[in-house]
Every structure is written in C-alpha cells, then in structure tokens.
Design brief:
The complex is a heterodimer of chains A (148) and B (84). By secondary structure, chain A is an alpha+beta fold. In chain A, 22% of the residues lie in helices and 42% in strands. In chain A, strands 1-2-4-5-6-3 form a 6-stranded antiparallel sheet, covered by helices on one side. Helices cover 55% and strands 0% of the residues of chain B. Classes of the chains: A alpha+beta (148), B mainly alpha (84). At the A-B interface, strand 3 and strand 6 of A face helix 2 of B.
Chain lengths: 148, 84
C-alpha cells in the first residue's frame, strides 16, 4: 500500500481536508505535510483583518495526518481488504507555541501510544519549516473499518 | 482477591470517566457502564486498559465486547486471574 492509497481513503474534501502529502507511515508513526492556502475560508473571520490559523484547525490537521492516516494504515494492515472507514474524534489535549499564518507549510509527526479496541491514541507534534515546534498534544479517535 | 475488592477497584478506575455521577451512588454488579454511568465508547477502552494495568491481565476483543456491566467486568477479571 502506498501513501496515495491512504490519501484517497480519507473521508474529507476541500475546504476541510488538511493533508497534502505523507512522507512516512509505519506501524508506530506517521509524518506528513500541509500548506494552508492563503484563501482558506477561516481567514476571513479569524481574526478580523488579521488572518491567523485557528487552533482548532491546527488540531484538525494534526488529527487528520497523525491519527486518521495512521489509523487507516493500521486497519489496512490488519484486514488486508478494501474497507469502509468510520471515524470519530474522542479526545484532544493540545498546547500551542507558535502562530501559523496564511501560506505557511507545516509538518506533522505522530507517534502511536496505543491502538486497542478501535481506539487509536497518539502523541502528535506540528513543526514549521525551520523545525520549530508549533503545537503538540495527545489526540485520540475511534477508527473502525468495515469490509465493503 | 475477593469480590468487594475487585468491585472497589473497578469503581475507582471508572470514576474519572463517569458522566453520570449518580450512577456511582449505588454501584453494584448490575451497573451498566454505558447506560448507568454514561461512559462513552472511547473512555470504555480507557477503563479496560486501566483494568489491565491494575490487575496485570490482558483482555482480548471477545472479552471486551462482553463487558457491558460491572459484574461482567468482575467475572472476566476473576477468570483471567484464575488462569495465571
């Protein structure tokens, strides 16, 4: 399975897809990139005349790359057949260190804490292009795959 | 380990994940994790992982799916402890 296959399985689309590419996925970790387009919908209102990427969107980006992409990979490894993926965010606890502005590219690195009984919990970090920490936290979701 | 001790441990483990605190007042073997305590499915996984650590046992998928009540959990814990 290559990374394109995982991206195709993501159940999101513009304007709520926050993954451009994956550079690594294995049993224990995932790494990927996203560039926030200057015309993203949330910049108009967050903030008035001062566009900054909302923390919830950074959390979503970390969850999509770090938990969902990894979850799809792990389910595929387990079942090895086409799956219909069902998702739900179950918890997030994130600390923020640096702002992300329109046009910025971020790198997300995720390490699996556990994947048991359909719950995937990860320690996820987001870095800017000079490898400075933007935010980090623990994110968990329920990830299920049904045979199609 | 006797029944009361196991029930006390389960109660201690499930308390932080319980939404419906009244459910803890008459905590017994019939207490249903989801209906009476309003634990969500993601936190039920946390409860099970905490049970594994507390009793040093491993709970498989089949046991997990049968763990609806405190009594179910107690029986599974006793069964796993008996095997080791």
């Amino acid at each position: 399975m290559d990374y394109t296959e995982i991206l195709e399985k993501l159940p999101y689309s513009v304007p709520f897809l926050f993954v451009d590419k994956l550079v690594n996925i294995d049993e224990k970790s995932a790494e990927g990139f996203y560039t926030f387009p200057i015309d993203s919908f949330f910049y108009k209102g967050h903030f008035k005349n001062n566009p900054v990427t909302p923390g919830v969107i950074l959390t979503e980006c970390m969850a999509q790359i770090g938990v969902v992409c990894l979850g799809i990979f792990l389910l595929q490894e387990e079942k090895n057949e086409p799956l219909d993926i069902k998702l739900g965010l179950s918890s997030s606890e994130v600390d923020f260190y640096l702002p992300v502005f329109p046009g910025d590219t971020v790198r997300v690195v995720s390490e699996k804490l556990f994947f048991r009984f359909n719950k995937l919990k990860c320690e996820v970090r987001m870095y800017d292009k000079s490898d400075k920490l933007i935010c980090r936290g623990k994110i968990a979701g329920m990830v299920k795959g049904k045979s199609v | 380990m006797n029944d009361t001790k196991i029930l006390d441990s389960i109660k201690k483990i499930v308390t932080p994940y319980t939404q419906r605190k009244e459910g803890l007042d008459n905590f017994n073997e019939d207490t249903d994790f989801i209906k009476d305590l309003e634990v969500n499915s993601a936190n039920l996984v946390d409860v099970i992982l905490d049970v594994e650590d507390e009793f040093n046992i491993e709970i498989d998928n089949e046991s997990m799916s049968g763990m609806l009540t405190v009594g179910n959990a107690k029986n599974i814990i006793e069964q796993k402890l008996g095997k080791t």
